[in-house]
Write a structure and sequence with these properties.
This protein is an alpha/beta fold and 136 residues long. It has five helices and five strands, in the order E-H-E-H-E-H-E-H-E-H.
Length: 136
């Protein structure tokens, strides 16, 4: 069975903490790699052997240096990592930003919850939708 890895890129440390903690509660076997912005995410993921793991990328939309959308554009044009599912988790509900994210290749767009129970629901959905099966 391949290792399961989730990259969590968000400039808000509390949001990273809540999301990472919820994922660990739902799926303690998952390795979580945190990044403070899209630039850090891209550097970290370039080092990963993507063939030996089931990987999921979680992106915040609004981050300094490299936004979630900019990072997604780089990911979707990189042959080595373009196949990795990516989910945008954002406080924004701007329809134009959502459309741009889907047009760029996001697999899902989720509005950030306002309580920990909401983060647990997201973690459960991510496990079911993206990590409960082996990808080639």
């Amino acid at each position: 069975m391949k290792q399961k890895i989730i990259y969590v890129a968000d400039d808000d440390e509390d949001d990273r903490l809540f999301l990472s903690d919820a994922i660990r509660k739902v799926s303690p076997e998952i390795k979580i790699v945190e990044a403070a912005d899209g630039d850090d995410l891209l550097e970290l993921i370039k080092k990963e052997n993507t063939k030996d793991a089931n990987i999921l990328i979680l992106l915040d939309m609004n981050m300094p240096r490299v936004t979630g959308l900019e990072a997604l554009q780089v990911i979707r044009t990189n042959e080595k990592i373009k196949h990795i599912p990516a989910v945008m988790i954002s406080t924004s509900s701007d329809k134009k930003l959502m459309q741009d994210a889907y047009a760029t290749g996001i697999n899902a767009f989720i509005k950030k919850p306002n309580n920990y129970g909401g983060y647990l629901k997201i973690a459960e959905a991510l496990q079911t939708c993206f990590l409960d099966f082996e990808r080639a």
